[in-house]
Design brief:
This protein is mainly α. It has a single domain, classed as CDP-alcohol phosphotransferase transmembrane (TM) domain (Four Helix Bundle (Hemerythrin (Met), subunit A)). About 75% of the residues lie in helices and about 0% in strands. The protein contains seven helices and no strands.
Length: about 230
């Protein structure tokens, strides 16, 4: 038998390893910061349920507010943590740049809608309706601008400083609304919803201002004259 006629199969270990690494990378597309972002979105309906719970014998409204505030704080902390991890571990992705601000919008708008609809906060509904409307349309408009800008040049627009400051005050405002009558009003003997009104005013100002900054910066993408 002629050895030269034998078929010899050579296995390339490097090629096999590269294929395994490619499969591994595909299965790990959702990194930890993005998982935290998704977790924040999942918490939104849960928070809304606690805000909307009416007075009952199983879970009093006071405790429902406390649970809603605690969950809202946890959700807000994930916003800080996922951004910190993404920068520190170099895990910044287009998915995170897009979904992280959207998760914040879902959280804020969802909580405001629940507060407006809840009978517990009926006394301030005349104001929360308008505040929720302003916040909703601002977030909708800014999200549209971000998508248009991304479509135009292919870059995902990250949140600017004014938008991040707005997000902080939105958290402060919602936490104040949920807990004012439990913590502040009873201890300080202040008029009902005083601090809620103040924080809502600051929040609306920052919401409108940050929206203006976005439109001013990216108007070139939506200018109807062009």
């Amino acid at each position: 038998m002629n050895d030269n006629n034998q078929n010899i199969t050579v296995y390339d270990d490097n090629s096999s390893n590269n294929q395994n690494n490619n499969v591994s990378n595909k299965t790990r597309k959702i990194n930890l910061p993005n998982k935290l972002t998704i977790f924040r979105i999942v918490l939104v309906p849960v928070i809304m349920i606690f805000i909307l719970i009416p007075e009952n014998d199983i879970l009093p409204v006071t405790w429902a507010k406390i649970f809603a505030a605690a969950l809202y704080m946890i959700a807000s902390l994930t916003d800080f943590i996922d951004g910190l991890l993404a920068r520190k571990l170099d895990l910044i992705t287009d998915f995170g740049k897009l979904m992280d601000p959207l998760a914040d919008k879902f959280l804020v708008v969802g909580a405001l809608i629940a507060i407006t609809a809840a009978n517990t906060f009926e006394g301030m509904r005349w104001l929360t309706v308008w505040v929720t409307t302003v916040v909703f349309f601002r977030e909708f408009a800014v999200t549209s601008v971000r998508l248009i800008a991304k479509t135009a040049d292919g870059n995902v627009i990250a949140a600017n400083f004014a938008a991040k400051l707005k997000t902080v005050f939105q958290c402060v405002c919602i936490m104040t609304i949920l807990l004012e009558d439990i913590v502040l009003s009873q201890n300080l003997k202040t008029p009902p919803y005083l601090f809620s009104y103040i924080t809502m005013a600051v929040m609306v100002i920052l919401t409108v201002y940050s929206g203006f900054v976005y439109f001013k910066t990216y108007w070139k993408y939506i200018d109807p004259a062009k």
